[in-house]
């Protein structure tokens, strides 16, 4: 009953308090997740060397691709559950939970098997050179072997948030962070397992957290819990999950394509060190991006519930608050990039050339951050209200419509500088497009009651 009361509060409690209640644990969890990825890279860069950092950067497309499939299920299922809880359709929400487990198992295993069979050709396609492919292969063999664990872990965490358990979701992520750091010390620093040690630390920490998550959902007293009869895939539920999850799926697939394109252009115009510099810059940027992703995750159950219960005023209030918060977060990131880039780069390596290139990459990569938070929240907003086509367009606009063409053209004229400058140029253009679309939608929403009253 307490769980049901917490769910009903999504439609009655102060929107500001709800956003803090749901977003803060998600922000802590997502930031912690990015921090343990950074700690992996810090250990690898300091203990193994600069080429290992470049090799790890080659694996970013793999991680984005795996996240794409995880997001299609996790985000789709959690949003669908939030809407069903808003409609007080608890039986369907429970069936979505069971279908989430089954989908994660099927997709996670299939992805691992296919990628392991063609690992070396895929890494070459991603931009690996003779110097970096041994590091990338060593890392991905372990990550792919445990991919089903990662899929299930992230999927169950998303459902925990949708089921009004943001603190439990946060605790699961914090546990993986602490455990990952401890295992990094043991595997990389003490036992000298190198880059494979970082991969083992990641999978083992997620496996332990997953055991705890499944124990939470096994509790029969919970509003949503695991039981017989909910695991058989139901076509209409799967279609609903995928329809909602297609936007983050395509966003992550595009991120994969873009990173492949960036890595290949960086290798062509700047060599392996430029790839390593981008890996460092991307790691720093992801801290602040994860803040906003956490904010969006906290916003999602509130927006989904109030959209399901047709409380439009509360829906718009939570969006406005999220935009203000996201902008503040990304401005902080912009200040960090321009005031302390050396210290950010120095965490990862002692190599002076890699530090020099990383400082430049950090400044340019985060140049347009004050605008990015708005674009991310608006994209998530349209996803929450079921405007899938708009959400997909906004997800793809930065990466496919703007960034890839710029990456193809600018380096021909400006070399390596052209690769770097493509990033802020596409960020600004995508944010401008999101602002125009949101302005048009808000005008329609504002005039809708007046039009209805006249009719």
Automatic annotation (TrEMBL):
GO molecular function: antiporter activity; xenobiotic transmembrane transporter activity
Cellular component annotations (GO), alphabetically ordered: plasma membrane
InterPro entries: MATE_fam, MATE_MepA-like, MATE_MepA_subfamily, MdtK-like
Keyword Amino-acid biosynthesis recorded: no
UniProt keyword annotations, A-Z: Antibiotic resistance, Cell membrane, Membrane, Transmembrane, Transmembrane helix, Transport
Subcellular location: Cell membrane
TM annotation in the entry: 20-39, 51-75, 96-119, 139-160, 172-191, 197-217, 237-262, 274-295, 315-337, 357-378, 390-414, 420-442
Top-level taxon in the UniProt lineage: Bacteria
Pfam families: MatE
CDD domains: MATE_MepA_like (cd13143)
Transferase keyword on record: no
GO biological process: response to antibiotic
Membrane topology, as annotated: Multi-pass membrane protein
Main location: membrane
Similarity comment: family membership: Belongs to the multi antimicrobial extrusion (MATE) (TC 2.A.66.1) family. MepA subfamily.
Protein's name according to its UniProt entry: Multidrug export protein MepA
Organism: Prevotella multiformis DSM 16608
Lineage: Bacteria, Pseudomonadati, Bacteroidota, Bacteroidia, Bacteroidales
């Amino acid at each position: 009953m307490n769980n049901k009361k917490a769910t009903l509060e999504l439609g009655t409690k102060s929107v500001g308090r709800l956003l803090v209640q749901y977003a803060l644990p998600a922000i802590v969890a997502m930031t912690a997740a990015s921090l343990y990825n950074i700690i992996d890279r810090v250990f690898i860069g300091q203990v193994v060397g600069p080429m290992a950092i470049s090799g790890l950067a080659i694996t970013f497309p793999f991680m984005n691709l795996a996240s794409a499939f995880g997001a299609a299920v996790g985000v789709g299922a959690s949003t669908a559950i939030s809407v069903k809880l808003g409609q007080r359709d608890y039986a369907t929400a429970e069936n979505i939970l069971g279908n989430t487990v089954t989908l994660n198992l099927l997709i996670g295993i299939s992805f691992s098997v296919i990628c392991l069979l063609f690992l070396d050709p895929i890494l070459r396609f991603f931009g690996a050179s003779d110097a970096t492919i041994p590091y990338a292969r060593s890392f991905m063999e372990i990550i792919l072997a445990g991919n089903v664990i990662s899929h299930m872990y992230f999927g169950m965490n998303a459902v925990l948030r949708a089921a009004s358990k943001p603190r439990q979701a946060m605790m699961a992520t914090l546990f993986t962070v602490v455990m990952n750091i401890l295992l990094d010390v043991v595997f990389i620093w003490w036992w000298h397992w190198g880059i494979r040690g970082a991969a083992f630390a990641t999978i083992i920490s997620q496996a332990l957290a997953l055991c705890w998550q499944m124990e939470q959902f096994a509790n029969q007293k919970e509003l949503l819990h695991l039981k017989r009869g909910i695991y058989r895939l139901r076509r209409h539920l799967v279609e609903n999950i995928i329809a909602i999850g297609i936007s983050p799926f395509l966003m992550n697939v595009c991120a994969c394509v873009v990173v492949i394109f960036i890595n290949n252009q960086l290798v062509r115009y700047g060599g392996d060190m430029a790839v390593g510099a981008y890996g460092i810059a991307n790691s720093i940027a992801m801290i602040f991006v994860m803040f906003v992703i956490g904010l969006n995750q906290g916003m999602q159950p509130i927006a989904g519930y109030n959209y399901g219960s047709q409380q439009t005023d509360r829906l718009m209030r939570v969006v406005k608050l999220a935009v203000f918060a996201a902008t503040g977060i990304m401005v902080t990131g912009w200040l960090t990039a321009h005031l302390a880039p050396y210290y950010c780069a120095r965490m990862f390596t002692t190599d002076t050339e890699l530090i020099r290139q990383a400082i430049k990459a950090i400044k340019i990569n985060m140049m347009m951050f004050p605008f990015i938070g708005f674009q991310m929240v608006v994209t998530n907003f349209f996803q929450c209200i079921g405007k899938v086509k708009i959400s997909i367009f906004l997800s793809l606009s930065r990466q496919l419509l703007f960034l890839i063409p710029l990456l193809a053209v600018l380096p021909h004229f400006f070399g390596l500088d052209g690769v770097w400058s493509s990033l802020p140029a596409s960020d600004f253009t995508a944010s401008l497009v999101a602002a125009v679309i949101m302005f048009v939608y808000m005008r329609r929403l504002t005039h809708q009651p007046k039009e209805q009253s006249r009719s």
